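task queued by scheduler; priority normal; single chain, no ligands, no partner chains; default sampling; output format set to C-alpha cells
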Amino acid sequence: FAAIAGAGVLLGPVLATQFGWLPGVLWLILGAALAGAVQDMVVLAFTVRRGQGSLTALLAEAAGPLAASTTWLLALAVLVLVLITVGGALAGVLVADAGATYVLALTIPAALLVAWHERARPGRGVETTLVGLLLFVLALLAGVWLASRGPAPSWLPNRPTMVWLLAAYVAIAAVLPLPVLSRPRVAFSGLLALAGAALLAVLLMVAAPAMHIQPTSQFLRGGGPLVSGAAFPMLGLLLALGAISGFNALVASGLTGRLVRRAGEALPVGYGAMLIAAFLALAALVTVATIWPGDLVAMLTNIAPVDVQRLTNLPVRELERLNQLTKISLPGQGGAAALATGAAQAFAIFPGVRPVWSPVAYRLALALQALLLLA
C-alpha cells in the first residue's frame, strides 16, 4: 500500500476535480474494484507461486527473453517518470513547509533505530511495530511543533537543491539492505498514512463540509486551467495509481512478492492494498471538492487570483479566508497544499475547535503527504 499510494493517489484526484467530482468517483470505484485490484492480486499470486522473482524474470520464463527485455525497458521508463513526478511534488512540499522537511529528516534516524531494534530483539514483531509507531509518531509531532515555533529557517534549500538531496537519498536507500532503511520507512509511513486516511474519512463524515465542486464541469471536453486535455483520456492518466496502473504490477512482483509467504495472501495484500489506495484517492478527491473551483485554480496554477475569473470564468470566493485559516499564502502552492487546506477546513468545522489549531492541522496533513510521497 505504501509503495503504490504515492503522488498519483494523493495529487491526481486534485487535478481530476477539473472535470467535476462524479467522473473521478466512478473511475476510482469501478477501475479499482474491477481492474486494478484484480491485476495486483493476480501478479502477486503469480510471483509467489513462481519463486518470488521480478516481473521481468517471470516474463522471461513464461514468454521468452524478448518480452522480458521489452518489459524491462518499459519498466525503466515508468520508474524514471514516477521518480520525476514524485520528486518534483515532494520537493515542492518540502520547500513550501519546514514542518514536512523536519518530519522527513527525523524519520530517517527513527527508521534506523527500528532496524537496530529488530536485529537486537529478533522474533518480537509486535514489540518492534509498537516501537516503530511510537518513534514515527514522535517524529511527526516533533517536526510539526518545530515548524510552528517560528518562520522557516534560512538554511532550508531551494527547490532544485531539494530535488538533488532527494535523489541522493533515493540512491543511498536503493543500495542499502532492505531491512536497514527502506522497509521500516515504507512500513511505518504507510501505517501513519492509513491512520490519516481513516481520520480524514471520519472528519469528512462528521463535519460534512459542503461540496463546492459540481458533479461535472464545463471542461469535460478539454480546455481547462489545470490540465489541457479532455476527461478521456486524462482522467485515466491522472487517477491511474488510484484505479489501475502498471506501476502497481512492478511493486506487486518486486518488493511485495518477496515479503508475501503464500499465494493465498495475495487477496488481502494485493487486492486489499489497491482498494485502500482507491479509498485514499476518493478521500482526497472529496476533500479537495470542498474548495471553490476558482480558489482551487489560484492554488494550483501561477494565475494571479485577480485574473482567475477573467481567464477561466471561475470566481475566487474564499481564498482570503483560507489564507487566514492556514496562516499560509496559498496561491501557487500546488496540489499538496490544496489537499491539506481541504483537510484543515473540514477540521475547523468541528465544534470546539479553536482557530489556532487549524494551521497545525494543515501542517500535519502536509507532513503525512510528504511521508507517503517519500515511501
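post-processing summary
- The chain has a mean pLDDT of 89.
- DSSP finds 19 helices and no strands in the chain.
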